[in-house]
Design a protein that fits this description.
Elements (H helix, E strand, L loop, with lengths): L7 H12 L5 H12 L3 H29 L6 H16 L5 H9 L1 H4 L6 H13 L10 H4 L4 H11 L1 H10 L6 E5 L6 H10 L4 E3 L5 E4 L9 H4 L3 E3 L2 H10 L6 E4 L6 H9 L5 E6 L5 H11 L4 E5 L12 E7 L25 H14 L1 E11 L8 H10 L3 E4 L9 E3 L2 E4 L1 H4 L4 E8 L6
Parallel strand pairs: 5-6, 5-8, 6-7, 8-9
Antiparallel strand pairs: 1-3, 1-4, 2-3, 9-13, 10-13, 11-12, 12-13
Bound molecules: S-adenosylmethionine.
Amino acid sequence: MAAGQQNPRLVAVQVLTRCEDGGYVDAALDAALQKSGLPAKERALCTRMVYGVTAARRRLDAQLAGYCAGKKLTPPICNTLRLGLYQLQSMDGVPDAAAVNETVRLPALLRQKSATGLVNAVLRCYLRDGKPTYSGSDLSVRYSVEPWIAKMWCKAYGEEQTRQLLARFEGEFPTFIRVNTLRTTAPDLIRRLSDEGLTAEPTALPNCLLLRRTGYLPGLPSFAEGLFHVQDLSSQYCCQALGAQPGDTVLDCCAAPGGKSFTVAQYMGGQGRLCAFDIWAQKLPKIEDGARRLGIINLTAACHDATTPYTGVPLADKILCDVPCSGLGILGKKPDLRYKQRGEIKDLPDLQLRILKQAAEQLRPGGVLVYSTCTLSPNENQGVVGKFLRDCPDFTAVDLTGLCPGATVTDGMATLLPHQTGSDGFFIAKLKRGTPCNR
Ligand SMILES: C[S@@+](CC[C@H](N)C(=O)[O-])C[C@H]1O[C@@H](n2cnc3c(N)ncnc32)[C@H](O)[C@@H]1O
């Protein structure tokens, strides 16, 4: 490492320590990497370490407890030990000797030199023991989630499904993209991406492609030309469920950063009216920039709190309520969500129901509303829709059987479990408003 250059492990420990008080890993890492001046390869290493240690934190702590009993650890030293153990367990490309030697240097760099001996002793002892893996039967420790999450899933899906679901979150998640049908076709985009060195494959869903190898996608000429946007398969099924048609009036109540609005606009063939709302004005430029890049001309982005009436907005043919949620379906991509406390998300079902009921007021008779989340929490999913259907008898659930291969459909509503669909954990309910004669 050149003199004065940042150390990727040091940056990783600093980010991990900063996030322990509740900061978001992705934001803290982005900010630290920008300041760090690290070259691309070291940035990738640092990123892998931060995400990996975060995803395994609960299990690493359980294992470290056996080596550090009775020792008082400061947060930076605790994170140094987690990082050391993680490298020895999960980073095949880092030789054991390098993992230990580089990690043992960190206490001095963190101005906690007195902990050097402890870090050295713990890591060498773990190596001498033959790098044992966690041998307990507690799913929440083995797969590193808060106990209430494992318990909730065992109750909802059974223990074996929960094990498979949690194991899936430890693997790599593929990248899916959405063909911009306003500008190209799937076969043409596949050829174009191949010229740019990427392998894209069709999926069961038309115009959804799976990328086998990815790099920095926004750097591709085809991206700059607006031929696609990145969007998970589950989100694309959600947009398909809405069934927007050219000429429709469509509201997207919780639209930022805009991925689903863009796909819906493509189903609309650029014709009709698409209002993309979000409560945060600072998020609107992301929607507007994306729409501009993709050549979408029938989308208007505006600031609106979806729990309040939509004044001056026409009744809609289709409404998408992709509500704020606990995100438990995307633990593989956002590892810090594994440690959400139940209390932090207890108010979400109430907010989600208020957003859904307000949207319902804005739907024309005979219109269709899709309620979706990227969480696997029955309270936020079937619980909210169940209450809605009881309170709003002019709505019925449209059966989503057959929408997405591998999805579990109960009472017409689809739950997408990642180990069954190969995509994000997701929930989709399609609700139709009766026409005056059948209300
Ligand atoms: C799950 S995200 C939406 C993702 C988006 N549909 C997409 O596909 O790109 C939920 C969004 O709801 C917004 N939001 C939260 N509370 C809201 C409210 N009361 N009214 C409108 N939007 C809200 C958040 O700012 C966030 O952007």
